[in-house]
What does this fold into?
Amino acid sequence: MSKFYITTPIYYVNAAPHIGHAYTSVIADCIGRYHRLKGEEVFYLTGTDEHGEKIKKAAAAKGMEPQPFVDMVSENFRNLWKALDVEYDYFVRTTDKDHTAAVQEVIRILNEKGDIYKAVYKAFYCVPCETFWTDTQVKEAGGSCPMCKRGVEEVEEENYFFRLSRYEDWLKKYIADNPGFIRPKIRRNEVTGFLENNKLADLCISRPKARVSWGIDFPLNGDYVVYVWFDALLNYISAPGFLSDKEKFKRLWPADVHLMAKDIIRHHAIFWPVMLYALGLELPGTIMAHGWWKMGEEKMSKSLGNIVNPLEVIKSVGVDGLRYFLLREISLGGDGNYCAQALINRVNSDLANDIGNLLHRTLNMAEKYFDGAVEAAGALPEMFRESFGRLSDYAPAMDNLELSAALEPVLAFIGAMNKSIEEVKPWALAKAAKTSELKEFIYSLLEGLRVVFICLYPFIPSSAVRAYGQLGLEAKFDLKDVSWGAVKRYNITKGEPLFPRIDVNR
Ligand code: ME8
It folds into this structure.
């Protein structure tokens, strides 16, 4: 059985999750479910990033100690994934014992290889981004953090460094030789441009406890903790068992897809590959950076306070309404503007009018004309030959992480089926007692729906399960069943419409 290993970033627990976090996790869930449809062993890793100054400050602001605070916020993330049907396989927390031990072991290994040294460090630090910047970088950004534009602190202290610079030439060559490693192309160009214009500086991987106390003990010196990003990136190997389960690790590593938003591409496309290479480990298949959900011109972010709570959205459009909107509205890589009206329009048009209505009408007719029992009749009708054929574009698009594009042939087939009802006029066939023609037609709609919900399952899993219940089918989805004529007899159980129209004036 082949495996598929996908990750989301591990999210900071300084505040509750919002639509941006939901976006990444739902994309990863959709891709993971698709690979399960293909019969692969999927390992979907997510989790929370729980160390660093910013977390400690957030805990203090609530009058709490860091550990109970991170326990509480990490739980919020798990609750949201449950509400969003995000089916992960492992939830890593950077305060986990296994993770901590793996981080410390990695530092020992790299130290033995001569990749770690101690030196005085002078730089500017941005607490919200937990990132150091050089004098030039801060000057170029007009005296503030180049990433978030907020104020930075000047820091001068002794620290431990990882010899990133030693691997600069290797990294440049690796990126040049592997065009699919960083995606989309715009991010690949950004990273390549950065490497061409900047000498790769060694990475400061420790923080003195006198300044940052909430972190993993630095194994080479008890007066220090590990830099939060160095700690966090290692979750991708600690969770599949780098130290704790060698067999599992061998089976799962390397990750196939690391998914994240574009703002943390450099950490993943520069620090991370070098860390892995220095450790003698294989590199992940693809580092895929998606765009941002924005509110007007601004990125939706907890620090800007312009966030939308996914749990509130689920209350109005349902879990699959939100999932569908996030996955359909923007193609992976681009930015999107979050707008409640666009969300409602999308749910009403695609889900209620097109998909839900087709299912409901078909089930009504199956019940009315055949008491809900419809036997296999006829081959793939000529009128569906082209649109059904186009479904062969679905899997290549999904394999290539083009989720919104993968939906297009599915929606086109649904459109063709809706149109065929108007053209064939089954009510006229019934009136003329053309029973076999009528049965052939209703069977073809049921078969079409069966196939459509296999393709939609990764996007709207709970609705696909409900639809299968109404079609009288066991909800076992398999990509191999996207073929015509697999079900010999339908015994349908009509239920409530899958997607009631959302009334805007409610
Ligand atoms: O960066 N639009 O954690 P974080 C789209 N702990 N995606 C968004 C978004 C938005 N407006 N806002 C957040 C960290 N995201 C580190 C990661 S990984 C080893 C360490 C999503 O809590 C997106 O996936 O700031 C982004 O990369 C991530 O949340 C940042 O989460």
